[in-house]
Design goal:
Four copies of one chain form a homotetramer. Chain A has 380 residues and is of the alpha/beta class. Chain A is built from 13 helices and 14 strands. The first copy, chain A, folds into two domains: 125 residues, Rossmann fold (3-Layer(aba) Sandwich), CATH 3.40.50; 187 residues, 2-Layer Sandwich (Dihydrodipicolinate Reductase, domain 2). In chain A, strand 8 and strand 9 form a beta hairpin. In chain A, helix 6 crosses helix 9 and helix 9 packs across helix 13. The radius of gyration of chain A is 20 Å and the shape is globular. Chains A and B meet through strand 6, strand 7, strand 8, strand 9 and strand 10 of A and strand 6, strand 7, strand 8, strand 9 and strand 10 of B. Strand 13 of chain B pairs antiparallel with strand 13 of chain D, so a sheet runs across the interface. Chains A, B, C, D: InterPro entries: Gfo/Idh/MocA-like_OxRdtase_N (IPR000683), Gfo/Idh/MocA_oxidoreduct (IPR051317), GFO_IDH_MocA-like_dom (IPR055170), NAD(P)-bd_dom_sf (IPR036291). Chains A, B, C, D: This is Gfo/Idh/MocA family oxidoreductase. Chains A, B, C, D: Pfam families: GFO_IDH_MocA (PF01408), GFO_IDH_MocA_C3 (PF22725). Chains A, B, C, D: One of its GO terms (molecular function) is nucleotide binding.
Amino acid sequence: MTRIRLGMVGGGNDAFIGGVHRIASRIDGHFDLVAGALSSTPEKARASAETLGLDPSRSYGSFEEMAEAEAAREDGIEAVSIVTPNHVHFPAAQAFLSRGIHVICDKPLTATFEDAEAMEKAVAESQALFILTHNYTGYPMIRQARQMVAEGALGKIRLVQAEYPQDWLTDAVETEGVKQAEWRTDPERSGAGGSIGDIGTHAYNLACFVSGLTGEELAADLQSFGAGRKLDDNAHILLRYEGGARGMLWCSQVAPGNENGLRLRIYGEKGGLEWAQEDPNYLWFTPHGEPTRRLTRNGPGAIEASTSVSRIPAGHPEGYLEGFATIYTEAAEAIRAVQGGQSREAVMGVLPGIGAGLDGMAFIRACVASAGDNAAWTKL
Amino acid sequence: MTRIRLGMVGGGNDAFIGGVHRIASRIDGHFDLVAGALSSTPEKARASAETLGLDPSRSYGSFEEMAEAEAAREDGIEAVSIVTPNHVHFPAAQAFLSRGIHVICDKPLTATFEDAEAMEKAVAESQALFILTHNYTGYPMIRQARQMVAEGALGKIRLVQAEYPQDWLTDAVETEGVKQAEWRTDPERSGAGGSIGDIGTHAYNLACFVSGLTGEELAADLQSFGAGRKLDDNAHILLRYEGGARGMLWCSQVAPGNENGLRLRIYGEKGGLEWAQEDPNYLWFTPHGEPTRRLTRNGPGAIEASTSVSRIPAGHPEGYLEGFATIYTEAAEAIRAVQGGQSREAVMGVLPGIGAGLDGMAFIRACVASAGDNAAWTKL
Amino acid sequence: MTRIRLGMVGGGNDAFIGGVHRIASRIDGHFDLVAGALSSTPEKARASAETLGLDPSRSYGSFEEMAEAEAAREDGIEAVSIVTPNHVHFPAAQAFLSRGIHVICDKPLTATFEDAEAMEKAVAESQALFILTHNYTGYPMIRQARQMVAEGALGKIRLVQAEYPQDWLTDAVETEGVKQAEWRTDPERSGAGGSIGDIGTHAYNLACFVSGLTGEELAADLQSFGAGRKLDDNAHILLRYEGGARGMLWCSQVAPGNENGLRLRIYGEKGGLEWAQEDPNYLWFTPHGEPTRRLTRNGPGAIEASTSVSRIPAGHPEGYLEGFATIYTEAAEAIRAVQGGQSREAVMGVLPGIGAGLDGMAFIRACVASAGDNAAWTKL
Amino acid sequence: MTRIRLGMVGGGNDAFIGGVHRIASRIDGHFDLVAGALSSTPEKARASAETLGLDPSRSYGSFEEMAEAEAAREDGIEAVSIVTPNHVHFPAAQAFLSRGIHVICDKPLTATFEDAEAMEKAVAESQALFILTHNYTGYPMIRQARQMVAEGALGKIRLVQAEYPQDWLTDAVETEGVKQAEWRTDPERSGAGGSIGDIGTHAYNLACFVSGLTGEELAADLQSFGAGRKLDDNAHILLRYEGGARGMLWCSQVAPGNENGLRLRIYGEKGGLEWAQEDPNYLWFTPHGEPTRRLTRNGPGAIEASTSVSRIPAGHPEGYLEGFATIYTEAAEAIRAVQGGQSREAVMGVLPGIGAGLDGMAFIRACVASAGDNAAWTKL
């Protein structure tokens, strides 16, 4: 099985998420990183490429240059990971999609809704795959939860309680030289959403992914507690889903003691499910009127939906990187399938793509609009 | 130390909360139950009195009869516990307050807002104490949390996340002969609030008690999932507190796997606190930027606010009944202080009284009004 | 139902366990404390009696005086609680047993094995009941565990892992005026066992109570880590039970971070059970090959063995005092049954009595003997 | 940075641990797997090599063949992973060590003590590195614990409580075609230790690694509960460490509900530490007399010892594979350092090597000897 040749846009030495993508691409051995435009600063790009052992001739100063050069090579990249701040997602993706190079792109889809619509068009006009790394959908117990809901283990869904608290923006660290905080609190680079874009979209995506429901409307109260902060760092949201289910979504970057507290609880007429990202190998399942069961990854009660994306036995914890790697592995399988002649539509499976990206952008837009109208109900 | 002579209205053999009040009144040995109007059915009242070993001559057929007779006795009751469905709270309390007998009353204050205002008047016109059993305020670690917030351990409060999920009304058990469910889902006996009255008021009371904040306005989305159910069994609420803090409150009786999941999380500029009723001997405290500490009842880090209402050493769990007993014990101390000549205002300490009761009724009223206006913001 | 008249030996104002017994005796309302020899110091005895509201004429200077006087009264005590240091258990119990007064006695049974044998004789020669407060057997989920094991839910038992770590003797606090530490580390008052007597007997009792097994032999490595400490403060013990089951028992008073960490895990051919005293409302049950279930007190899956000793609904935590109260309540029922003419043997049910006490003394003796012989196997 | 050329012995398609080693070798990108003798069955070896995308010419039928051929190639492997059943460890390692090829070998060191001594000699006579994958030492919070103990955070160590329960051999699955069970319960392939070799060595290694202590003697009670099982499947062990610390070690493969329950608790004069493999991102630290702290990987309180082997931020769980990968990454760094001219002794850092392997074998030997002498104390 030969590896897929991968390029990367962004992800220089001081970026967090670039390293995550690289590890994720390596875990199951389906990709070789062979090219990069790793930084908007040429020097940094060079240094990063060297650290990574890239052939210097394939370390590019810009994504445009890289797209053009790699498309021209016989052994050019087959896929590219885009791990830049949000405002670069669209132009970078377009450069590769238009040349038939598959795109694996970080979330949220884009910084603006206009870019999102342009992205949709670019995807439509390309034959290449577009995969959005809503990585939390790759956790085995999330796959199991989704399948259990789909099979009716909870009955008709009534409630979807999602939350995603963090604490890293409790102080105004964006004014103290923390790079991750700088661009994430800057509307120019992040877009209209602060916490709602960075983590709220993950929570909303996961709520829909597991419940199988579509959001209908929401009422959002957004706050910016950090001194001088331009974007929201906390959001309290009421949600109404199609079919009558109701939900709440809380995301925060100012809740001390919460590191990465993504948590999902879903309740239906017949049972409930609870899952927490920080302890991802457990899924708590209560058939109504019976004792709660602790389902474990690859343990008793695990079903194919989870065991098929699990690498090691129960009790040997898999984590964030493995869930992320599953997205890469399924991307590799989809890319090979398309290369083997299958239609793009047939190969995506549960992989998040342009649709999930647009849903996320609609979520951000609705939150901002609702908050601007005193938390009035706003259609998604 | 002689015991305070106590009567009880409601709390017959098949009532849950009556037994709780009786145990709570006994734990610290400050009360003797000597009289009762234990049921609206005379036969049941007699049977219950017999089980409890009451003097048959002090088992009454109605609270009016009891109030009159006991007030006339030299050794009549000094205080009465009212543990009936909500719609009886006001008439019963009035009968005793008007005769100078101290009242310990279950929550919510009354079934209707009109009754609540009448109750306020009855309390004002009496010399007797009125204590509302918002029992969760009696938990030692809740006392500690309140004190820590008051002393600034969290800095200025930003977020108050309260939730209270249960699952016992997942099915429409009120149609299957479950007495507790029957009156709690009946507007005639419960009032305008279902879950918001029964448990939402507890969560809101606790949020205010610990945070020291006053709610300003709320937006509430109420649902009745149970088939044919007339009152809400789930509520999703956004809250705005005075001073700029924001919060959410979720209460539910239809969330399978949740038995009595009252939980409070408070975050400020300098730290966070988390507490869960089902594991009440722990308080999780995070000074921002430091590791989270597990504070335990009577353990290292416990302060006088909690140790003074704690009976046994750390590691020996106290529970729901002990927290409830603390309300009774503080009621006894207040009663003795008033009997000793102190003013009613001087003796209440942190005991919940008519004010907390009115706050709860305002909460219910605002929830219902907001929900009737599509979750519009409504003043508290 | 009239209350049983109770006396108390020991349990003055500064004693921990006396207060626990008093609360336990009150919770379910079966006893009235009417007499006491609360301290070996007459002044303290008087002061304590006053605090408790005892009739001064029934506050005695010694247990002998109390036994004689109360036995002579028509309204004399029917039962007595003995809550002194261990070396007083036997003489005090004998004084009451010989007069037909029922005895509720703290554990371990006595300070010496000679006293234990004398106690056995005293019990045999009396008509009165003798109840030993191995209070942890009163926890509802312990009762449920015992019943599940008895009914074969685990199959044949293979392993019994018991542990009871604490940390309060990490430093040599007995030299710093901590009264609880003084007598517990003094061979004259405690007997030959330090941690093994104070808490090891609890763990061993619980292991046998739940598993239904009898210990056959043990190998014990005892340590005294505290500077100058005469008795063990840590014990590592291997156990062999009749029928081939094996176990370990660890008790410690020098394990920082452990408050009262009694924990029991039992494994058989068909399943496993886990329970921890600090979170006593949960019982974790794994039928082999199936997901682990979280059984809760009074929740789904609760059986009569636990619900019958449970006071309030699931999710409303009961704790240490309630478990202790169950011993008192069952003692009251046994006393009334004997008073009603039933035979002493017929009324004890699962209540720990002289047999459990002797088992505990045999455990201490075997531990000390084994440790003295370099942890050689020693018959129980 | 070019990758190190790696070969593998064992680890064919149906082996669990081979896949783990491969993922671990890829995560940080330091190795390329280029050759293999993946199975003792040539057909399986070929099929496995094909699945892995190995050049067919470098898929060998035996480790001898591979060692000879690869040593002869200019681009031959620089290191080899040995992931066979235990009895093959020595002959395979010798074949590579004698040719100067670095060896990364699974534990326990060998099947017999004779082989272990031969292995020691082979390592001594080679210039190549020998690394034993005691992978649990690679967990960040284990590194932090070790460093904290070394710096005196606990004071002088008194107690080391280690346990490692599993449940997968509860039934005699080795008779039902479960390959992992077959060789692990076969003395020919596993050696004299069953559970003590497979998992007990891990627990003992971790206890010593974190505490910094050396075991002096032990008393072991071994059992074989599985029907017809020849090796121990449960072990209860008392331990005495140099300097006066005492400990217990329990390992089991027959404890239903335990998946991979490796857990370590260490207590000293000044504090305690607790860690559990199934929730590896947390370390619970109690300075005596202060509240327990929950230290998290890369969170507040994390020190260089843990952050340096951590890949992603706090709250994003790393797991078993990442800990394993750290061993591989440090092996890569050691290999490069040796290739760069440093002495073998200078580059091992905390990596487990032949010494740790011999300690493990001594542990197995002492356990078996002690158990054969009715759990008599036996020198390590």
